[in-house]
Task: structure prediction
Amino acid sequence: MKKLITSGAITVDSIHKSSGRKWTIMEKLFLGLTLPQYIGQALRNPLNWIFAIIFAVGIPIILGRFFFGLSWVSHSSNDYPWGLFLAFGLFGMVPLSSSGFLLGSACEVFGRHDLEPIERLGLLNGLLGYFFAVVFLLIDLGQPWRLPFPMVVSFGPAAVLFLVAWHVSTYLSVQIAEVSTSFFEWIGFPIGVRAIRKITLGLAISGIILSTLHQGALGALFTYAPGKVHPLWYSSSYQWIHFFVSSIPGGLCMVITVSTIASKTMSWRFDKRFKDSLDRITISLAKGASMGLATYLVIKLMSIAHDNKWAYLATGYGQWYLVEIMIGVIMPMCLFAYAIHHNKVAIIRFSALLVVIGIFLNRLNTALITFNWKLSEREIPHWREVAICVTVYAIYIVVYRFILYRLPIFYQWKTQEEFALAYVPETEITNLGNFEPALAYATETEANAFRNTETVTS
Amino acid sequence: MKRRDFLKGCLIGGAAASLGAPSKSWAVGSFEGYPDAMGVLVDTTRCIGCRSCEAACNKEQKLPEPDVPFDDTSVFKEKRRTTEKAYTVVNRYEANDGQKPPYRKMQCMHCNEPGCLTSCFVNAYTKTKEGAVIYNGNVCVGCKTCMVACPFNIPAYSYSSAFDPLVKKCIFCYHTRLKFGKPPACVEICPQEALTFGLRSDLIKLGHERIRQTPDRYVDHIYGEKEMGGTSWLYLSRVPADQIGLDTTIGNEPVISNVKDFLGMVPMVLTIWPALFSGIHLLATRNKDHGDDHHNHSEQEGDKK
Ligand code: SF4
Ligand code: SF4
Ligand code: SF4
Result:
C-alpha cells in the first residue's frame, strides 16, 4: 500500500475524488485502487497467506462443530462445562473491549477532548470485541439457535447470565450506533451522522451503565461456583469488582496495542491529526491504565486479606497466581510509571501488551486453569478447540483490518468545502510498514462480514 | 434534542428505574423448601454396592445401554460421576477405620434452593412442590452455567449430540412416579432398603432417630439437612461425609447467597449512574466554550451552539 501511495495512488478520505467526482462504493471498497492493483497488493502481503492457511484449516472445523457436535471439537466435559471458547473468547475478549465505554465516556461525558482522535478506535475495538465474544459464545452454546430465548421465550431474571444476555445485546446495539457515525460518513449519509450525533451523550451514558453491569456480571458468574474456582481467584463479595476494575486497564491497553500494531502496519491510513497526537494520547491512556491497575492490585490484596487466604500463596497455585500478578499488574505498573515519567512511548506500548496478556491469563486461570482445583483431573483443550479459537481470532483481525482500512477511524472524513479548501493528499508516508490486505478469498469473508455489519446497522 | 433536555430525561429515567426496579426473585434467600417436599434418605451403611439402582434408573429413564453391564464390579476401581448415560452411579470408597469399604449412590440432591435453577437464564429448571428439581429441555440454550453452578457436580451434558444436546440429570422420576406419589425406581428396587422415600421432614426425624438408636453405626450428622440450604436427598454414613466423596467444605449457604451481593447492586447502578454521570458531564463541560464541540465531526452543527 505504501508503495502504491508513493506511486501516486490516492487514498479515499472524502466523498469526492480530487477530480470532483464522487467515489463509488466499489472504489471505496477497493480503497481507491483498481481491481488488479488491489488484488496485487493483497497477494503481496505474507500475512494474508498465513490467514489463508488458518482459514483453510479452521473454517471446516468450525462447520464441523455444528454437524458433529461439541464433543468433536472440544474437551469441555461434565466437570469442565466451560472450555477454551468461553474462557478465552468470552471472558477474555469482553474486558479488552471495555475501551468503547471508557473512551466514549472520557470524550463525551468527562469532556476529555484531547482523547478524541482515538475515541473512534476505542469504540470500534469495543464493538468488534463484543461481537466476536458473541461469536465465541455461539460456538460454545449447545443450541446456539436458541440464543434469543432469554429475551423472548423464557426468563430467568434472577440469573446473572440473564443480565449479561440483556446487557450485552443492548450494549451491542449501542455500540453499533456509536460506530455507525463513521460508517454513515463513509457511505455519504449525513442525516444518519447528525441523528447519531444528537444522541451521543445518551449512548455514552448508557454505555457506562451497561458496561459496569455486565463486566461485573461476568465476574459474578463465578460466584455461582464458590467451591470450584480457586480461592485466590475467587471472592464472593469482590468478584464482580475484580472483573470490572481489571477491564479498565484491559480496554485501555488493548487500544494502545491495536494502535501500535496499526502504526507499524497501516500508517498510510493515519491522518496528520492522528499521527501527531498518537504519542501524547498513548501516554494519557497509560496514565488511566496505571490508575486502574493500582486500584485492581489494591482490591486483589484486599480480597486475599479479607478472607485470610495468604496461606494459599505458598502453594503451587499461589506461585502461579504471583506470576499472573507480576506479568499483568506489577510489571506493567512499574514500567508505566517509569515510561510516563521519562516520556518513553515504546516502553508504554510494550507494557500495554503485558497488561493484555495478563488479562487473558487472569480469565483463563479463573475459568479454566485453576477451575475445579479440588478435582485431580485438569482439562487440556482439544486441538480442534485451539484451532477454532485461532481461526475466530484471525477472522476478527481480518474484519478489524478491513474496517480500519476504510472507515474514518484513524483519519477524519473530509467534507466538500474543507476538501476544496485545503486538502493536500499525503504522499509522504514515513514508516516501516509495507502492508496490504486480503487475498481474493479472504476479501470475500471480509465482504460478507461487512455485509452483515451493514444489515445490522440498517 | 438539547443537551439539557437530555440530561433532564436522564434524571427522570433514573428515578423511574428506581421505582420500577422491584427486588426480584433473589429475595428467595430465606426459602426453607416446600413443606410437602418429598425426599430420600440414603443410609450408606446399608448399601452393598449391588448397582441395582443404577440398572433400575437406566430402565426407568430409558437411558442407553451402559458401557459396562450393571453386575460388573470392576467399575469400582475408579470414581465415577453422573453422565448423560447414567443419572445415578454408585462408588466405593476407602474408609480408614479398618472395616469393609462403604459405598455411596450419587444422583441429583434435589436441593431446596438449587444452584442450577438460580443460575439458569431461561429458567429451564423447576423445583416442584413434591421436591423434585426438574428440567425443561425445550428452552435450554446450552450455556452450561447450571453445571458450573451445581455444587455437587451433578448435571451432565450430551456433548456428542449435534442438533439436540441437553442437560441430563436425575429428575426424581418426577414424570413417571413422583407426580403420582410413587417412590422412584431406584428406591423401589434397592434390596437392602438403603434408600427410604418419604416426606423430607419425616426423613430428617427418621435419620436422627437411627443415629440415636445405634450411635456407633453412624457419624452424628445427616448430610443434606443443612448443606447448601438443605437438599431433598439426605445421607447417613458410618464415616465422615468427606470420606465418601461428599464435599464438606461447601457450607450451609445456598448458591444464591453468593450472588446476592452482585444482584443487589444492579438496581443501584441503574438508578444512580445516569444521574451521577450526567452531573459529572455538566461539571466537566460547564466552563468550557466548546463543551459540545466534537472534533471528530467536521460538520458544524448550528443547532448545537
Ligand atoms: S444437586 Fe445440583 S443439579 Fe441437583 S438440584 Fe442441586 S444444584 Fe441442581
Ligand atoms: S445449560 Fe440450559 S439449563 Fe443449564 S443454565 Fe444454560 S440454559 Fe439453563
Ligand atoms: S430418582 Fe429416578 S431418575 Fe433419579 S436416580 Fe433414582 S431412578 Fe434415576
